[in-house]
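Memo to structure team: turn this sequence into structure tokens by end of day. - J.P.
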Amino acid sequence: MECKVTDLSVRDIRFPTSLEAHGSDSMHADPDYSCAYVVIQTDGEFCGHGLGFTLGKGTEIVCCAVRTMTKLVVGKRLDDIYKDFAGFWRTLTSDSQLRWLGPEKGVIHLATAAVVNALWDLWAKIEGKPLWKLLVDMEPEKLISTIDFRYLSDALTKTEAVEILKKAQAGKKEREAEMLANGYPAYTTSVGWLGYSDEKIRKLCKEALADGFTRFKVKIGADIQDDIRRCKVVREEIGYDKPMMTDANERWDVQEAIDWMIQLAPFKPHWIEEPTSPDDILGHAEISKALKPYGIGVATGEACQNRVMFKQFFQANALQYCQIDSCRLGGVNEILSVILMAAKFKVPVCPHAGGVGLCEFVQHLCIFDYIAVSGSLEDRVTEYVDHLHEHFKDPVVVKNGCYQVPKMPGYSGEMKEESLADYEYPTGGEWQKLFNEGKFKPE
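Reply from structure team:
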């Protein structure tokens, strides 16, 4: 890896998903799934592709934040980056002026994720492996060397992390073979968007069952009577022998969340996801304690800003399911630290996905977790949403309700050039057509 980074570019890519209420929930009624799409060029054979997920407006702000990092990346030798990836990650997150925009949170951290995801995609392509395999094949000490442990040592030390990985060496080959044969279990959210009619929900439930899905999620939180009706519809279609998760997308105050979920308890929800502010760790702990007698767990993480907050969630016993997000945390390096903390605190990792490219990314992370860290599929499942995969060169494949293991080198986030040209905002051909038809107005 003697080559250098020669260029870092970013494009504002948006898809008009709000037209059909895809992605709608109690807090985000009209999302247009979008991303800041990053390409890292080198003077060698390969380039890296990464992205930071957004919901439309404001994507240009993330793109601007990415551009501020250009001087931190361009001109660097890949050997220097990957030999001390933790140090390079700290360079990106600790620039003495840029860090004031976070630190390690918000728009600047979304930009960090996009850049870091592209660097991991590049590394995996150079090694000729899909990302999950790159991670699985690393010696424990090498993998741990990619993680910045600052702020974590009171919860997880480097020594403990190495021991977790070494302990999981037993059975790795068998678990890898199992993944290649069967895939990783998924649940579908596509049946339960808040903007869907009851008829559409029934139709989608029937289709998902026929496709082999056995776990389902329903968006809730805007109106209790509406939620009761919609949960009843889903249970009528899937029965009570299959897990049904619920997701409030940060809608409620703490006591409101408790009272609301007690009313939905007869429908046997497996978990309530994001019941309150994603920053309210103690609030989540109170909700967890109150709902435990009802058999309802608390899941959160898609809007958890960094590894420090996850550390406190674990320490406070504030979540029963850890939902890492591949584009909210600062890329793979930080995600690895959270996966290892989850292993220490014995909390199952159930990644958040959907959006643009999130499914493509997280399949690598959950497969790695099973093979090389947790060694368990008990109470573990990864979200799947069947939107926008056709725009990727190596899209996810789900069969019989399971993610199939990706085989192509990289992190699976590279998009088709024609899709980038059509959906670049606001100049892309599809957006010009939508503007001319009056379905959208240019910002």
